[in-house]
Amino acid sequence: MSNVDEYDTLNKIQYVKFDQCEHMYHMECAISWMKQQLNCPTCRAPSTSVIDEKGNQIYIAIKDDDLRSSFYQAE
């Protein structure tokens, strides 16, 4: 296990993958990115949701007047 993996495990950092391409990122990084862009930062595949480590899909809620509103988790 690398130092990064050990740090992530100890600090319970969650990973998510983009729903269309499955590239993986730290959850905070992915959400920060999606507040600015509705695509994968690696391949630019369009995406409005990510999938967490437990298989839960997390969507971005889009308002007509603001594409950078909020996130919600599907039940």
Automatic annotation (TrEMBL):
State the UniProt keywords alphabetically: Metal-binding, Zinc, Zinc-finger
Q: Which GO terms describe its molecular function?
A: zinc ion binding
Check the record and name the InterPro entries matching this protein. Znf_RING, Znf_RING/FYVE/PHD
- Pinpoint the RING-type domain residues: 12-44
Q: Could you identify this protein by its name?
A: RING-type domain-containing protein
Q: What is the lineage of its organism?
A: Eukaryota, Metazoa, Ecdysozoa, Arthropoda, Chelicerata
